[in-house]
C-alpha cells in the first residue's frame, strides 16, 4: 500500500514526488521510459527562474535524484489501468499496486505528420528530437517543420551542425520567440519556407527528400537527409483516461485550482492538464499543488 502513486516522471511528477516525500508519505513514481519527460531532450533551458544555460538532461537528472534522495521510489513500468475504489488500484504491464491517492502527470507526446512512410522512416531520417539526432546529420541538408519555440530552437541548434536548414511553417508568421526568429534570419544557412506544409516523404530505406505544398497549391520537392518534426504535442493515449473527464482534445479537466479530477483522490498535474500555458514553471507549480492537495486530504 502506497500513500501516493504518481504516474509520470517529468517535471510535474517529480516535483509532486518531492513534496509528497518531504511530508513523510510513501511515494511511488511510475514512468514508462525515462525520467525527465519532454524537457530531457532540450539542449538548453533559459526560461526557468534561477536556471540559466542548463541542459534539459542535467536538470531532469537533478530533479530525479532529489526525489529519490527524499525517499520516493521510482519504477519504470507503464501504467495501463486505474480502478476506482478505496484503495485505488493501478495496473502496470508488470504489476498491480494499491494506493490511497494518485496524481496523473502523464505528460504529452509529439504530434506526428501522419504521412505515408512516416513510421517506417523514424530513425532513418525522420526525427522528433533535434538535440538527440542532429549530430547524425552534420554537414548535410535538413528540414525542420513547425512554427513554435521548439521548431525555432531546433532550427537554431541544427544551423550549427547542418550545411543547410529549411524551416517550414504553415503560416506566414511564427508563433515562437521573436528573438530566436531574428537569430535565424541572420544565419546564412537557414531558409524559411512559409505558408507551406510537408505533404510527402520521399525515400524507401531512408529519407531522401520531402514534398512541400504552398497554401496556393504549388508544390516542390526538396532533397534533405532528415526532417525534424516539431508541430506540437498531444496528450498521451492511455486507458487510464477512460474514467477521467477530459476535454475534446484529450487533456484532463481539473475540477478546481486544487487540481482534483472527477475521481475521488485522483489529481492531475503538468502538461496533460487542460490549461493555457505549458512550461516547466507551470508543470512544477502543478506538481506542488497536486501533491499538497493530496497530502492535506490524506492527513484528514
Describe the protein's architecture and organization:
Helices cover 24% and strands 26% of the residues. It has helices spanning 11-22, 56-69, 118-121, 130-133, 149-159, 178-185, 280-299, and strands at residues 2-7, 27-30, 73-75, 79-83, 88-92, 96-104, 108-110, 126-127, 141-145, 164-168, 190-193, 196-202, 209-214, 219-222, 226-229, 233-235, 266-268. The strands form four sheets. Strands 1, 2, 3, 4, 5, 6 and 17 form a seven-stranded mixed β-sheet that branches. The protein has a five-stranded parallel β-sheet with strand order 8-15-9-10-11. The mean pLDDT is 95.
Brief summary of the model shown:
The protein has 300 residues and is α/β, with parallel strands linked by helices.
Proportion in β-strands:
25-35%
The percentage helix is: 10-25%
Structure classification: alpha/beta
Global geometry: elongated
Largest sheet properties: 7 strands, mixed
Terminal residue distance: 18 Å
H/E element order: EHEHEEEEEHEHEHEHEEEEEEEH
Runs in which pLDDT lies below 50 for 5 or more consecutive residues are none
The whole-angstrom Rg is 21 Å
Mean pLDDT: 95
How many H/I helices?
Answer: 7
Number of strands: 17
